[in-house]
Amino acid sequence: MPGDSMDKPNTVTCTAPVNIAVIKYWGKRNEELILPINSSLSVTLHQDQLKTTTTVATSRSFQEDRIWLNGKEEDITHPRLQSCLREIRRLARKRRNDGDPALDSMGFSHKVHICSINDFPTAAGLASSAAGFACLVYTLSRVFDVEGELSGIARQGSGSACRSMYGGFVQWIMGQKDDGKDSLAQQVAPETHWPELRVLVLVVSFAERKPVGSTSGMQTSVQTSRLLKHRAESVVPGRMVKMIEAVQRKDFTAFAELTMKDSNQFHATCLDTYPPIFYLSSVSQQVINLVHRYNRHYGETRVAYTFDAGPNAVIYMLQQHVPEFVQAVQHFFPPESNGGQFVKGLPVNHVALSEELRRSIGLEPLPKGISYVISTKVGPGPCVVEDPTQHLLGSDGLPKETV
Amino acid sequence: MPGDSMDKPNTVTCTAPVNIAVIKYWGKRNEELILPINSSLSVTLHQDQLKTTTTVATSRSFQEDRIWLNGKEEDITHPRLQSCLREIRRLARKRRNDGDPALDSMGFSHKVHICSINDFPTAAGLASSAAGFACLVYTLSRVFDVEGELSGIARQGSGSACRSMYGGFVQWIMGQKDDGKDSLAQQVAPETHWPELRVLVLVVSFAERKPVGSTSGMQTSVQTSRLLKHRAESVVPGRMVKMIEAVQRKDFTAFAELTMKDSNQFHATCLDTYPPIFYLSSVSQQVINLVHRYNRHYGETRVAYTFDAGPNAVIYMLQQHVPEFVQAVQHFFPPESNGGQFVKGLPVNHVALSEELRRSIGLEPLPKGISYVISTKVGPGPCVVEDPTQHLLGSDGLPKETV
Questions:
Q1: Which residues on chain A place their C-beta less than 8 Å from a C-beta of chain B?
Q2: Which of A48-57, B100-109, B153-162 is the least confident region?
Q3: Å from A24 to nearest chain B CA?
Q4: Taking all residues of chain B, what is their mean pLDDT, rounded to a whole number?
Q5: Which of B179, B213, B67 is nearest to B132 (CA)?
Q6: How far apart are CA B33 and CA B155, in angstroms?
Q7: Which of the four pLDDT bands, split at 50, 70 and 90, describes residue B6?
């Protein structure tokens, strides 16, 4: 695929997905290599709704490595970017040295231009760095024709990026080695495994404080929270085993309850951090109440929430319950009547909300608490975009005007 | 003191204090005997600002045990009330059987009338049951002339009531025995020990949800929170030692930091409960932010917060910093301009808030977030009220009109 002419850059475009952890990653044992204090497990979301697109071009004529993120040139010397570039080039060089002279033409000694965009608003508060670094590493690997285990490189860009290197249900095994060589992502089940599983992202309206960033938040938690240490050492190992079983058996109840408990425990360790960190807003708390009351009404666990380092909820549920639950969300968080559409992404049928369910939930509605809902499902890992018109960099190696 | 006539009841009135834990009690290992899963430590607040007053009368002419709380007759058969009555009568009987014939006149075979009032609004969300049961047990002990260790009886009314049986700084030693005989309160330092220490109760305006009661909340936490188990077994024992040292050395920094960390850890275990329990409101979180930013501004820990099973903050600080911190509270939680006085209790001098401090804290003011502040200090344990005009029960054994 990659071109070989003197002047025209060798250009590749790929996309990569967002992932949402159901067993949470919080805390590093090695900051530089990004080695975690516990294993974690996530669901890869479908790229039809949420993705990062990255184009990488190499050319003998490029003077230096450059990067544009969401239309703006950024500093290429960022240490985590440098880690990813260095590791991919190391792999490429190794492959050449291992004796394939045809690879000389791949241009891995050339400089790269990188251009990347997210198709989801930053306001969605989704871990854009995971999709971003996964996409960067995957695209670089296609440009330099590097194969094999790449999640360890993505991990050095952003820890949870390693899990976006696979579709479906993915675990990040913490590993034991000091050099991090065994701290890798692994697919637990492919995206076709559990087709009934659906995902809603509830984008909470911002009103409150600026949250603490996850890098510095994790550091403070590792330094100060006794409960985090206990969680990582004594609680998560057993939960990983149970979660993998729940996914493999497609046991929604077990999956859902463990997901909620682990989200709550992660936020508990944030509160046990000194000074404490609050990621859940009053709207988040109301979503939690709504889910528990909805489940209580039916006497079974039909819906699960999880929250990362921000107030937005991610909801897991089986397909058949989506229309009613979306109505419940819309009822208890009435949107602006003149706003855009409330539900984006996969279409959701309209159903009526029974008076009985409404009364049984019995919460005070919180107008405009949720801006909108993204309806999506489990999806595949990074993909190459074959259509060259989709490149974000032009034949001059610079971002196209449309970006 | 107690009277002895046939018709006139033997009447005693006592007062007892509120206590605020700095190492928190959350979780019972025995529900009936109220034995905790960890030791705890509290500060007894001064009764000039917050107290319960209880009058107990006994008379040969009373037909049955009766109780009036805050002007309303309540069910005397409540199991915890019955535990306290039974235990005091057992002690009284034991004392007679041990051979003091003069005690025959105490009338402990007689029925009792009990009348109790709190001088603080329920809205203050202070653990009124602790002061209430401490006052009940103390007053019964005076009526029946029972002496010795009474905290084990108060504990059976409401766990934290045992700590209100002493002034100053009080630990509740969890004990090891199955019968609870060694689960008792003990004074760590008297109320005169640290006269510079001051206390502010920030009464948060209610707006949000009804909280889960502490009895059922504790049960759910014990059943579901792995972090609570770890806290009780592995964190609290070390913290008790450190807190006792901090109190004895009057080391405000150590006292304050441990107080905040333990409050946060208690609320973390509530969040780790399934379903999770939220006691901190967005106003509580803002108080936490205010305290940390205030301390950061000065580069030292001048102020500490602690929160029980509700949104109200209790603030500990040294006397010299009270005026400025109260101004900061008033600035960042502007009260209703036509409301009553914002600061009740011990007078607080007015000082100006520097522009520099205001900017350094840099929070968005939350109008009416705090209804009022009670300014108080460390105080003594239960007291007998000698003035008979203060009795809440008249000579007929019924509540006086004024109650």
A1: 208-209, 224, 226-227, 230-231, 234-235, 257, 260-261, 264-265, 267-269, 271-276, 278, 281-282, 285, 288-289, 292
A2: B100-109
A3: 14
A4: 92
A5: B67
A6: 8
A7: low
Pick from B208, B227, B265: CB nearest A265: B227
Residue B196: pLDDT above 80?
yes
pLDDT in tens, B56-84: 999 999 999 999 998 899 999 999 999 99
Count residue pairs from A and B with Cβ separation < 8 A: 77
Query: Is CATH 3.30.70.890 the right assignment for the domain spanning A197-377?
Result: yes
Which of chain B's residues have a Cβ under 8 Å away from the Cβ of A226?
Answer: 230-231, 234-235, 265
How big is chain A by its Cα radius of gyration, in Å? 22
Whether residues B261 and A278 touch (CB distance < 8 A) is answered with no
CB < 8 Å to B369, chain A:
none
Residue B311's pLDDT band (boundaries 50, 70, 90)?
Answer: very high
Candidates 3.40.190.170, 3.30.70.140, 3.90.1150.10, 3.30.230.10; correct CATH number of B10-191+383-390?
3.30.230.10
- From A261's Cα to the closest Cα of chain B, the distance in A is 7
Give CATH 3.30.230.10 domain extents, chain A. Answer: 10-191+383-390
Name the nearest CA neighbour of A306 among A31, A27, A40. A40
- Alpha-carbon distance of A58 to A144, in angstroms, equals 9
* % of chain A exceeding 90 in pLDDT: 84
Tokens standing for residue B376: 């108080």
Binned at pLDDT 50, 70 and 90, residue A126 comes out as low
Question: What's the token pair of residue B20?
Answer: 């605020």
B118, B132 in Cβ contact below 8 A?
yes
Q: Where are the alpha helices (H) located in A183-249, listed in sequence order?
A: 214-224, 226-230, 236-249
Kindly tell me the burial class for residue B150, based on how many C-beta atoms sit within 10 Å of its own C-beta (0-12, 13-18, 19 or more): buried
Six-digit token string for B399 = 């509540």
Residues of chain A with CATH 3.30.70.890: 197-377
Structure-token pair, residue B258: 């441990």
**pLDDT value for A339:** 64
How confident is the model over A87-91, as a mean pLDDT?
93
> Using 50, 70 and 90 to split pLDDT, how confident is the model at A403?
very low
